[in-house]
Amino acid sequence: MSDQPATPIQAFEPPYYAVVFTTVRTQNQSGYSETNDRMEELVKDVPGYLGMDHAQTPGGLGITVGYFRDADALRQWRTNAEHRAAQQRGRDDWYESYTLHVAKVERSHGFTRPTA
Questions:
Q1: pLDDT for res 116
Q2: Within a 10 A sphere around the Cβ of 3, how many other Cβ atoms?
Q3: Top-level class of domain 16-105
Q4: How confident is the model at residue 4 (pLDDT cuts 50, 70, 90)?
Q5: Cis? peptide before 8, omega within 30° of 0
Q6: How many CA within 13 A on the CB side of residue 51?
Q7: Which phi and psi angles does 51 have, rounded to 5°?
Q8: For the ABM domain, which residue ranges apply (predicted)?
């Protein structure tokens, strides 16, 4: 995850897909950061990948929302061999629990306060 200022992903012209991945991690996080960084780089190569947002609550709930232009882009990411291996490692080592929600976005808009 980046140390850059918090900025949400822009609103895109619908329809597109949002993948909401919520997690609670285990105490064992050995190798997690490196794998997470690799997944963030790898997903950028998927045609139709639009971006992602991350949030972490003080209580330990992690939320990542990935945005994909179409079902083909989402399928390519879901079936990527390196991503599949990272998913298995997550189940084996890093996640106490997680949920995954996939939604087709039908409406999207945004706001940015003008700078003074």
A1: 80
A2: 4
A3: alpha beta
A4: low
A5: no
A6: 8
A7: 145, 180
A8: 16-88
Query: CA–CA separation, 75 vs 89, rounded Å?
Result: 20
Structure tokens at 112: 């940015």
* Distance from C-alpha of 111 to C-alpha of 22, rounded to nearest angstrom: 25
d(CA 107, CA 52): 17
Distance, in Å, from the CA atom of 45 to the CA atom of 111, rounded to the nearest integer, reads 28
Residue 40 contacts residue 48 (beta carbons within 8 Å): no
Q: Break the chain into its structural domains and give their ranges.
A: 16-105
Rounded Cα distance, 116 and 98, in Å: 41
Q: Give the span between the Cα atoms of 70 and 89, in whole angstroms.
A: 27
Residue 1 confidence (pLDDT) above 70? no
The pTM score is 0.89
Per-residue model confidence (pLDDT) at position 7? 84
Q: Which residue reads 């609670």 in tokens?
A: 24
